[in-house]
Write a structure and sequence with these properties.
By secondary structure, this protein is an alpha+beta fold. Helix content is 52%, strand content 17%. The protein is elongated.
């Protein structure tokens, strides 16, 4: 063992550049694997603890307007699967009446309700994940606003309408297992019962949440169907625990998923590089291996010698990767901790990374053993001759008329002859370009205004929401009056949103959210078919079409207000709002059944939509007016922030990966071609010529890698992005690209990094001389 360790130590000293680069490579793979699993472990632990402490409902139905409490109690008594029931009274206050630091919350997309602490389940928690309590005059503010607006304990929130004003001191920041994330468009403030009652006399409207906690094993879909069949109050959205979990996992788990995928790709690259390095090293040391075999070294001992070096490197990488994963994972899990807490099971965030590194170490050990064993099959005679397992290289003919561009001609000729050696570095350059572009393109797509088309509507500038209230008709008329007389508005459309009943593919009744309006004004791009025309057609979101088992041309029977309508599915579109389950049809909803009117506006050329938004807010103080870019940004804000972090990390990793592989590859190529280099010098080529030739080879390979990586990022990347958003209702994404950044700046940066690395890495050329080869 001592002999083996001495041999390994000498090998480290002989190839410090390769050893260092490979170690950093393995550390990066270990860091990403352990870091991604730490984020995942933190997310699972924190989310479980939040749900355990808060006890969110398994099914809830929102409602505005009158209701009969006795009917609800009778329904609960008739359902054996219901463990507990709760009616949450929510005082919904318009954002223009909520003031923080001198500004209203008009620019905030969220609907804000003021509630008291619940009894039994669905608790609002403080930042220690204890049931939050507030006194009269105090308020608990959602963690979402602490994150986005910087609200802190001790601050003052003011509610104001006309001559009435009430100030609340922020006593705590609250976590809400039901409405934590940005993708849920409502938020709850916690106040005392006395303050809620006093506020209700001055401003706001009552909204109710009928919440059900189910017994173990009971499907929320069964309760949803029974609720709909009982025709209980349902003038609002219904939400299941599965949908809440989907929102949370998508918001919190996206980063972990991307990091783990990157780490797996990086591990694959590391295995390719290891294989290449081992094969190159053993090819150069065939004579030494043959001598060891000749004097009686067993093959197992020789294999152990070569494997030990890489196992030691993996051990070092595992230690550094695990330690580095602590701050790395904590940075990317910061949002999870902020919204959910640190978690009750620390074993997950410590144990999962350790298991991941054990798996990584096992993969490296297996890969080393496989490559080493394969390269020890040659006989002693073959090894001593230096011909064991060596591939014959091709040849190229120098031009008889002489060189016009000598360095370019020689470099390309050698590249053609030795193309097999460049397969690994080509794959690494492809991966680097892909890794650099994909997160950037994903972020660009989400931030683009046209992303609204994946939210169930054509491109528009401004969105107006008129929520259900007793004054719904009057509010609608007032909005239309303002828009009809405004020359700054090019076009607008108004859509009623309500619910109908239908049967899914299993024959079970289900509730469908339907948008009714003129679909031709803001046309969508449909996955299949077209927009519905007339009263006998319907368009379904892709998730609804799948759940209902329908395709274009099929018939769908829907029931509204006791009337059954046989509609033809005219088209299927993408929509990531409302859990991805929406529809479009000309249903004439009664006013009391309209959950919300949504208007979309397109402004005339040259009109500033921010200024126009402020003008409309002033004219319609009780109505929510939101610029479409703000609507997208606030709905998907957490996802964009996460993608920004991933984009920065991916850029660093891609560039560092390119530099490390360039160093390793140059060292190996120069070691294997030292005879060729010496012969070139004897023929009159200078050190500068040889360095340029090596650089040309690398840059040609990298240029090809960037080209292929860019194509893959725009094709395979779309499939990956679609897969990520498919659970939300977008099944066919088109990545939007910034051409200047994607096709010029990023490739230029990659080429610059490799060029600088090649300049430094080829300095060793000056140490190779023909006299040394003659002496050998």
């Amino acid at each position: 063992m001592k002999l083996l360790l001495n041999l390994v130590r000498k090998d480290f000293k002989r190839n410090p550049a390769i050893t260092t680069a490979l170690t950093v490579f393995l550390i990066m793979a270990a860091l990403l694997m352990a870091g991604g699993l730490r984020v995942a472990g933190t997310m699972i632990s924190a989310y479980d603890e939040l749900n355990h402490k808060a006890l969110p409902p398994d099914y809830l139905q929102m409602h505005k307007g009158e209701y009969q409490a006795a009917a609800l109690e009778g329904f609960v008594a008739s359902q054996d699967g219901i463990a507990d029931f709760l009616t949450v009274r929510m005082l919904t206050i318009h954002n223009a009446n909520i003031v923080y630091q001198g500004e209203t919350l008009e620019k905030v997309l969220m609907d804000n309700s003021f509630v008291v602490q619940n009894q039994g389940f669905d608790y609002l928690l403080d930042m220690d994940n204890q049931i939050a309590t507030v006194k009269d005059g105090e308020i608990g503010v959602p963690v979402y606003y602490a994150e986005t607006l910087g609200v802190a304990t001790g601050d003052v929130i003011t509610l104001k309408k006309d001559n009435y004003m009430k100030e609340f001191k922020v006593a705590t920041i609250i976590r809400d297992a039901q409405m934590n994330v940005a993708m849920t468009s409502s938020k709850r403030f916690l106040i005392s019962p006395a303050d809620q009652e006093a506020l209700s006399q001055q401003l706001g409207e009552w909204e109710y949440s009928f919440e059900f906690l189910l017994k173990e094993g009971v499907d929320s879909g069964v309760i949803s169907q029974a609720y709909a069949a009982a025709k209980l109050p349902a003038n609002g959205v219904d939400i299941t625990a599965d949908l809440l979990n989907l929102f949370n996992v998508f918001s919190y788990g996206l980063v972990a998923m991307i990091i783990i995928v990157i780490s797996l790709l990086l591990i694959f690259m590391a295995m390719l590089c290891l294989s290449f390095i081992i094969r190159a090293t053993m090819a150069d040391e065939q004579v030494a291996i043959g001598e060891m075999k000749a004097i009686g070294f067993p093959g197992k001992a020789i294999a152990t010698l070569y494997q030990m070096k890489y196992l030691i490197l993996m051990g070092v990488a595992g230690i550094f990767g695990y330690l580095g994963a602590i701050p790395f994972g904590n940075f990317f899990a910061a949002a999870v901790v902020r919204y959910c807490g640190t978690g009750s099971n620390p074993g997950l965030k410590w144990g999962l990374p350790f298991l991941g590194l054990l798996l990584l170490s096992g993969m490296v050990a297996w890969g080393c053993h496989r490559v080493v064993k394969k390269n020890l099959h040659s006989t002693v005679v073959e090894l001593l001759r230096g011909s064991g397992g060596r591939r014959r290289e091709g040849h190229y003919t120098l031009p008889s008329s002489g060189f016009k561009y000598s360095n370019l001609t020689i470099a390309l000729g050698e590249l053609v002859c030795k193309w097999r050696e460049y397969r690994v570095i080509l794959l690494v350059f492809i991966f680097s370009a892909f890794l650099l572009l994909l997160p950037m393109n994903m972020k660009q797509t989400i931030q683009d205004p046209s992303f609204i088309t994946y939210m169930g509507v054509g491109e528009a500038d401004i969105r107006i929401d008129i929520q259900y209230s007793p004054q719904l008709t009057q509010q609608q008329e007032r909005v239309l009056a303002v828009l009809e007389n405004d020359s700054d508005i090019d076009k607008y459309a108004i859509y009623k949103n309500g619910y109908v009943q239908a049967e899914n593919s299993q024959g079970e009744e289900t509730k469908i959210r339907v948008e009714s309006g003129d679909e031709a004004i803001f046309p969508l791009v449909y996955l299949a078919g077209q927009a519905p025309v007339g009263k006998n057609e319907i368009a379904l979101s892709s998730m609804n079409a799948g759940e209902l088992g329908k395709k274009v041309g099929d018939k769908l029977a829907v029931v509204y207000d006791g009337e059954t309508m046989e509609l033809t599915v005219a088209g299927i579109y993408q929509d990531i709002t409302y859990g991805g389950k929406t529809a479009k049809a000309a249903i004439n909803f009664n006013n009391e059944d309209v959950e919300v009117y949504i208007l979309y506006l397109s402004l005339a050329d040259g009109v500033d939509f921010e200024a126009k938004t402020d003008e409309l807010r002033g004219a319609l103080p009780e109505i929510k007016v939101t610029p479409v870019p703000s609507f997208i940004a606030q709905t998907l804000g957490g996802i964009v922030d996460n993608l920004s972090r991933v984009e920065a990390a991916a850029m660093v990793i891609a560039l560092l990966l390119s530099a490390l592989v360039t160093v390793m590859f140059l060292q190996l190529v120069m070691a294997r071609e030292h005879r060729d280099i010496a012969v070139k010098k004897a023929l009159g080529l200078t050190n500068r010529d040889i360095r340029i030739q090596l650089g040309i080879r690398l840059l040609v390979i990298q240029g090809l890698g960037i080209l292929i990586g860019t194509v893959l990022a725009n094709t395979l990347g779309e499939g990956i992005f679609s897969l990520m958003l498919s659970s939300m209702g977008a099944t066919r994404m088109t990545l939007l690209i910034q051409p200047l950044k994607a096709y010029l700046i990023c490739p230029a940066i990659q080429l610059l990094v490799v060029t600088i690395t090649a300049i430094g890495g080829t300095r060793a050329v000056k140490h190779y001389h023909i006299k040394e080869q003659i002496m050998e």
